[in-house]
Amino acid sequence: MWRIESPRLIAGLTRMVHDLGVAEELAQDALVAALEQWPAEGVPRNPGAWLMTTAKRRAVDQIRRNETYARKLRMLGHELELDQGSASFEVPDDPEVIEDDLLRLVFVSCHPVLSREARVALTLRLLGGLTTDEIARAFLVPEATVAQRIVRAKRTLAREKVPFEVPYGPDRADRLASVLEVVYLIFNEGYAATAGDDWMRPGLCEDALRLARVLSGLMRAEPEVHGLTALLEIQASRSAARTSGSVPVLLLDQDRRHWDQLLIRRGFAALARAEAAARARGVPPGPYALQAAIAASHARALDPARTDWAAIAALYEQLAARAPSPVVELNRAVAVGMARGPADGLALLDALAAGPAGPALEDYHLLPSVRGDLLSRLGRSAEARAEFTRAAALTRNNAERALLLERAAAEAAAADAAPEDDRTS
User: Is the pTM of this model over 0.85?
Assistant: First the structure.
């Protein structure tokens, strides 16, 4: 419950007290109160409202101890009376105002006074509820680096007295790229959890998708806003088919009858809006629109065997040109391996690992995982087993580790069953 409610709690408190650090402390005070009271009294009917009300009371107590905050005390006391036992907030009449505290917090966390890395890390920490370790794995950087970024970001926001508001005009456009990246990474952490026992965290996916839809409604002329929304809609459509019990199910093994066709249709519509907005501006598709087009190619294939891998490989090539990164190249190798054969995919993958991007991927579990899959398709079972075993050692997600070890065991069995000349060749 805390994982779900804490981002909303921190965002709502930040709007009221205008201090991110204080808001976090008040939210954690409410958590402590819940840990003390809920085991004895039971979980309240509306846990989020209980946490918010408790945090507001702590805010009132804290402000009473500081006479310089008398004005805020009157404001909070009045709001507490209005919102007693309710999680709702006032809705501004101005349609240009974003009535979403979470979205306000995203824009504040992406303020230009912060570095790009700090913006993303701070927002993931506050809105996604991710630990510093999980963020570090998402960025392929040391955990200590992420921890320093978050601490410095909070200090900078407090020192610069950044207001809790949504920017307008050019300032909003400048911060949009960071905001979209944050929403994208929050969704990814929910879609394939970095660590823990759960393969997915649906609450994070829902939060990210909701924020993307709000942005789409607000910024109708922005192609990449619609591109991101399209991508998340289509990716979310696979959720019900991505697990069997607690076991992850790979894309090509999923029962596509369980894909949510409503979300797919919404994704196709958002992709059409992205393409239309790009044409209106005379610009090529952006990175999110290209990823959405890749997801749409999978969604159109009712049978995995009918997937247009050549088109997907071409889209990844465009994506690599627009937004080059080791992870994009890794995915391109997968697509090439499916379109042209595993030998071609393996050649691309080995070149990637041996090139400048190699160090960044050294501890990234998907590199040996993909390599193991390509080697398996080439019949090199002993090598594939070693790669799956290495990938299992690198991942922090227990469900994914179990799947990788299962694949390693299958490759070991295949290697043992192979004729002697095949094993020595």
Answer: no
